[in-house]
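Researcher: Re-running this chain for the archive, since the previous output was lost when a drive failed. Same request as before.
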Amino acid sequence: MENILIVDDEKNYPTIIGEILWEEGYTSMTASSGMEALDILNNESIDLVLTDVKMPGMSGIQLLEKIKEITPDTPVIIMTAYGSVEKAVEAMHKGAYTFILKPFENQALIAHIAKAISVYRIVQENSLLKDAIRSRYSFDNIIGKSKPMQEIYELIKKVAPSNASVLIEGESGTGKELVAKSIHYNSPRKSKPLISVNCAAFAETLLESELFGHEKGAFTGAVAMKKGRFEISDKGTLFLDEIGELPISLQVKLLRVLQEKTIERVGGTMPIPIDFRLIAATNKNLEDQVKKGYFREDLYYRLNVVKAVIPPLRERSEDIVLLINHFIDKYTQGRHATGTATRINLDAIKILCDYQWKGNVRELENVIERCVILSSSDMITPSDLPLQVRQDMSFMLDLEGIPEGVGLVETLAAVEKRMIQRAMKRAGNVQTIAAQLLGIGKSGLNQKLKKFNLDK
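Model: Regenerated structure tokens:
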């Protein structure tokens, strides 16, 4: 129930308005002066202020100015007599939502209040949504404690406050878009739009129109003017995903946009100034693409002011357990169905740690979501994992690759040492956990660490 503050020095007026508001489902508080109103605003939750203009001491206009300093989003409706319309117009210029002339019809007042509160709620929800987005894409929400990920965190922290172009390279599913969003929402442009375009999702002609926009009649079907992603991202950030798929003809045009800071819509002749920060991502090695002639060298250097290379999940296996727990938490929030898995046993973790994850973090997330939904108990076990994960044989030795003349003893010793090193790395050098991952006792692991001179 919305709470409305009525400010008027007339004794009976606030009481009458309060009764009208009560009948419409609102609660109300009253103040006979601007100072009393400010005291209430500092101590109570107020959704709207309804104030008279002419009051002794602090006028309604002065009260409005103070309210906008304290709570800028709180709507203020000014009540004024016919002879004070000029004051009401002044109030509108200073941020009042609207004004209403005394005496007024009850329904007119209620209509103004209902509309003002509706707008106020939208502003509040938008603010909460922005806060949630910033929180979601904060550095803390990029999961990983491995050295490669720590380097990514440091890079984001340094580059986010700048306007530098950033090129993000990494395999599909590694989280390139998450890094791009983290950069944007921790930059000075965070209150402006982040516009994303997947360059691989459009045919060349459609992609040009999508990026640059078009004028009415520019081509068949262009029945109205349309702004492109460059214009929409003005003052914000443009994220071009799969930039390696951008056709050569559009690479030339993108280079010109970055140099001139202007665009022309398809079918247009007037240059339009724009100001955006560019973040590009690709699952290809653009340097190799340049050498092969598939990507312009001059554009590559324009994009590659700062490069972030996101490592594949198989190269940061110590992050897998962190990610597993993160995704379990994510997909169990708000779920109360019987049998929904909320944890995972060690045998399942071992299988997931040994899997190669060609689809990277995205594939791991999909597997965990599936397990949470389909598990028959609150514990994810190996039987809950997809068949391809359980039967993955990529961990098997490449026997054909072992040189001739190498004996069985030294080969087995090399494999044993490698597995111990991997287990210790995944366990963060905690021997108890490493022993569990290897399926041996802690004392046995301790002996092997000494055997291979790994105990130090």
